[in-house]
Amino acid sequence: MSELAPSKSELAHTFLRERIIDGRFGPGYRLVLAAIAKQLDISAVPVREAIRMLEAEGLVSYERNVGAMVAMTDEAEYFTTMQTLAIVEGAATGLACGLLGAADLARAREVNSRMAACLEEFDPHEFTALNREFHALLFGKCPNAHLLELVHRGWARLDVLRYSTPRFVPGRARESVAEHKQLLVLISDRASAWDVELAARAHRTATLDAFLARQSGQLTR
Q: Would you identify the CATH topology of the domain 8-70?
């Protein structure tokens, strides 16, 4: 039996969500029903339903006399989410490292090489997607399902918050690639799970520190 085709509201939801997540529709961007419906060649009804779904996800807000707009970002929530990810993703990576084989590490090196290539003509959206793929390869074999659920929940929360550190702090991208290489060396050399966990945690914390330093610098200008 073939799968049912997505509804018009689902298509509109996907269309809008992708543009909010990757930054094409930034915080405060007005979502005009008629314009979106015309672009998608559908009526305003499914677009309105899609916007309601996005509002439930925290990606869209309504302002009186203005209408629907892309929700503003929450820096405090980003901070706590990144702090939590540093702990749970670090632990998941540590638990998974002994289960990674040569093929897994080769794939991770290949993804990191593609990230390095991205640095020449920097594309924050592609870099972020490759970064997720890289880390998923390292923590994906974690045998603790509850811990993995927390990691995935953290990544999903970052989607909602729409923060991409490479986009806001481009200089951090080159450092990330170098830290990935160091992490792969640790795993290849069969370092202890604890050492791998600490390295993965420090990598995540360094990303948060770079973002906070950038924000602090902007506030003091």
A: Arc Repressor Mutant, subunit A (1.10.10)
Alpha-carbon gap, residue 36 to 15, rounded angstroms: 10
Residue (of 93, 70, 88, 103) closest to 156 by Cα position: 88
Indicate the pLDDT class of residue 18, thresholds 50, 70 and 90.
confident
Is CATH 1.20.120.530 correct for 75-219? yes
Rounded to an integer, the average pLDDT of 68-74 is: 81
Rounded to an integer, what distance in angstroms lies between the CA atom of residue 142 and that of residue 114?
A: 24
Place of tokens 């638990």: 95
